[in-house]
């Protein structure tokens, strides 16, 4: 079975977005990360900032994020759900629809779980050690009041909690993916090469 759909799950700072983008470019297929957020925002009425934060991380308590998430059009069919659960339903539908449209690369948002029954999907997890990721986020995103280690731990923990809540699986467990690659050890370019090579094995 051809591996046409590639999902990229990643530890914060490991380069998963960059790898996914390059894989899509090399294979000549659509890439969905921010684009997925935009599509969910269009369908749900939720603000893109809310989707970026609540659509992949553990539920937040920020009253600002929840206030901007409110759609002007009430979601009558899901009025008993929390906004986080409503968002997961929208994201699930968007991810499934994108996969149905044809080959693509999808980053994050439990796509590996949502598309777990598709035989044409290749699921990848990108990780790296703390030192590599800390250097990378400072270089790319700059310094903040939080230490790099604390930023990484907070983001990773939120993703773990979110993933466990909606999938009942452990985020980052090798058994959930076809490939687990250490970008700090083998590099961004080599990770890209490996994913592209594996995808093409099934052509």
Automatic annotation (TrEMBL):
Per UniProt, the keywords (alphabetical) are:
Kinase, Transferase
Pfam families, from UniProt?
A: Cytidylate_kin2 (PF13189)
* Originating species: Candidatus Avoscillospira stercorigallinarum
Q: What is this protein called?
A: Cytidylate kinase-like family protein
- SUPFAM superfamilies referenced in this protein's UniProt entry, alphabetically: P-loop containing nucleoside triphosphate hydrolases (SSF52540)
The organism's place on the tree of life at top rank: Bacteria
Any idea which GO molecular function terms this record carries?
Answer: kinase activity
């Amino acid at each position: 079975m051809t591996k046409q759909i590639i999902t990229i799950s990643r530890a914060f700072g490991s380069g998963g977005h960059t790898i996914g983008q390059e894989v899509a470019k090399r294979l000549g297929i659509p890439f969905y990360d921010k684009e997925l957020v935009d599509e969910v925002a269009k369908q749900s009425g939720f603000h893109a900032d809310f989707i970026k934060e609540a659509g992949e991380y553990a539920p937040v308590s920020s009253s600002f994020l929840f206030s901007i998430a409110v759609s002007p059009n009430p979601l009558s069919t899901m009025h008993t759900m929390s906004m986080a659960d409503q968002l997961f339903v929208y994201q699930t539908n968007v991810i499934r629809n994108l996969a149905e449209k044809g080959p693509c690369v999808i980053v994050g948002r439990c796509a590996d779980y949502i598309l777990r029954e598709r035989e044409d999907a290749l699921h990848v997890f990108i990780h790296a050690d703390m030192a590599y990721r800390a250097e990378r986020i400072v270089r790319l995103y700059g310094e903040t009041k939080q230490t790099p280690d604390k930023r990484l731990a907070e983001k990773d923990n939120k993703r773990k909690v979110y993933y466990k809540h909606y999938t009942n699986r452990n985020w980052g467990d090798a058994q959930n993916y076809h490939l687990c690659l250490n970008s700090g050890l083998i590099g961004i370019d080599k990770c890209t090469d490996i994913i592209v090579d594996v995808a093409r094995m099934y052509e």
